[in-house]
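Re: export button greyed out
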Amino acid sequence: MRDLMMFAAVACLIPLSMMSATVAYLVWGWTALLAPVYYLYGFMQSFRFNFAFAIIAMGMLALGRMHERGVYRFNRTSLLLVVFVLHASVAVALAYQPNPSNMTLYIELLKLMTFCLLMPFFINNRTRIHAMMLMIAIGLGFHGVVEGLKVLASGGGHRVDGIPMSKMSDNNQFAVGMVMALPVLLYLYQYLRNRWASLAAMGGLILTVIAVLGTNSRGGFISMAVVGLWLVMTSRRKFLSLFVVLLAGGLILMVAPDTWFSRMDTIDSAGQDGSFMGRVFAWKISSAIALQNPIFGGGLRAQQVYWVFEKFKDAPSLISIAPEFAVSYAVAAHSIYFEVLGDMGFMGLFIFLAIIGNAVITRFEIKRLVRTLGVEYMWARDMTDMLTVAVVAYAVGGAAVSLAYFEIFYMIAMLQEILKQHLRSAVAAERKIAAAQPAPVLPAGASGPQPETAAAG
Amino acid sequence: MESLLLTFDVVSMVLLAYCVFQYERRPQRKKDLGLFAFKLAKTSRADAKKRRHYY
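Workaround output, generated via the alternate export path:
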């Protein structure tokens, strides 16, 4: 039944995509975030949703069949993403072999970067940016709503384990992904004009918070707490934000099951916790790989390869760990930072940190542009605040999960850049209009600046 | 429940795709930023109530 429904949807979406490249682009992003294959069991499971809409979008762009195509101004974010992918290409070429994940993950990274680097062509005005935010909410928010309802229906007994056929394949990755969806839903709650749609965004947000609690993820909880704090610090209505965050915290304390509390209690004793120390051991392996290959690392997911793990488990590294916590099998990096460090070396980590830092710096540039443009562009300030919250959630929550190549982070980084470009164009247009207006004619004998001075100002 | 929600999600995306398609086709409607149920507000919900802006 689901397959038939999805078939009908694709039958509607393909013609719409063939008529509008923006639609094709949005559906391309949606299929990446939703991972529809996981929810299907029949004939549509083999359909390559992502590939089909990517081909349509890129084909229409290449053929010039696009209404109001965006002007591509090469920018800092694009430059960083291109450098990152070029660096990854060399790291993949020089990777420890055999490593079956190396090429698979590289192809995924290329697809993701293609999507992000093409974004300025497709998303170039406020409505399209808004549609992009809606697409993220519909694609990513869906997982939060479904899992949140399952947690509610089971009275807190359902444990959320993630979406196996996506980047959020375990509970910790899922928690971080969902915390990143929260600010997008909050933005839509504020900016959807339709009352019901706005309430749906708020409902999705509440269910997503419940889904994060259902993961029993300590990293997810810390990430959510940081998001709350960041919201209070950067919000235009600090007291209201503080009230909402405290209310949410109180509700969590009231409704969360005992298992959740006992799990969170282990945060204090992480140094003795086997699960956490297993991660520290994984970080040790990553840094050992990077120390031997400082520029290009060991290749994508090298440390998950058994023989690479064996080679580096006793090698010198940046982290020392007690022998009783040593792990005897190859493990994932369990940190976005150590993942990139092991995969692409110190150079790769530097570029990765620059992408994160750039996304945060862009927020301050956008705020400055909004000051120039006035209250009409307050939406851009609110949007950049929310996008930055998502980046902060990723930077904090990602410290303990392997999510370095997570689509949504790169999408948000690029969306910040597009927002900045949009505002810069608006400032340039305003200046052009101001310059074209004739200088005011002063009455005879009136004191004031000379016309030349006024025009120059 | 999952099937119902998946249907709702997919229908929402089809609807969004249709709205974007309509928006792209009719430039004269751009002024109201009309995206159906996804219609965009010029100011945030709180700003619309308070009409007070500060940085």
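The first helix of chain B runs from residue 2 to 25. The button fix ships in the next patch.
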